[in-house]
C-alpha cells in the first residue's frame, strides 16, 4: 500500500504520517528528507545555492523514484510538491491513496506562528501579514490539493482522531 499525504506547510503531514505508519506497521518517508539525504544538503541550502528550479526538478525525480521503487509506505510531501511538474497526477497514478490534510487559514496561522524560525518561507514575514500570505498561497495551491482522493478536515481534531479517520478510509 502506498499512501501519500499532501497539504500546506504546518498541516500535520509529518506528524500524522509517522503515527499512521506506526499504526499500520509500514515505513514512513518524508520527501524533503529523501531529497536532503540524496543531495547531502538541507532544503534551504539547496534553494539558496542552486535555486528553486533545480530543487523542483530533483523533487520530481525523487518523488517518481519513491513511488515506483518502494512498496508499503506513507509519504509526506512538501507543501509545494503537488503544484509542480505534474507531481499531483503522478501521485494519483502511482499511489493507492492521496490524502489532503486540510486546515483553515486561522488554524494554519495558529500553528505556523510558533514555528516561524524553522520555516524559511515565512521566517521573515510579520505575524500580522501571515494570514494574507497563507491565504494567497492556499488559493494558488488549492486546485492541486483538491485533486486528492480524500480530503481530511483537520481543524480542531487531535492527531489520533485523524489517524483513525484516515485508517477508516483505507480499503
Keywords:
171 residues; alpha/beta; globular; Shikimate kinase; amino-acid biosynthesis; kinase
Structure write-up:
- This protein has one domain: 3-Layer(aba) Sandwich (Rossmann fold), CATH 3.40.50.300.
- Helices cover 53% and strands 13% of the residues.
- It is globular and about 45 Å long.
Please specify the SSE layout and strand pairing.
Layout: E1 2-6, H1 13-24, E2 27-30, H2 31-39, H3 43-69, E3 73-76, H4 87-94, E4 97-102, H5 105-112, H6 130-145, E5 150-153, H7 159-169
Parallel strand pairs: 1-3, 1-4, 2-3, 4-5
Compose a concise summary of this entry.
The protein is an alpha/beta fold and 171 residues long. 53% of the residues lie in helices and 13% in strands.
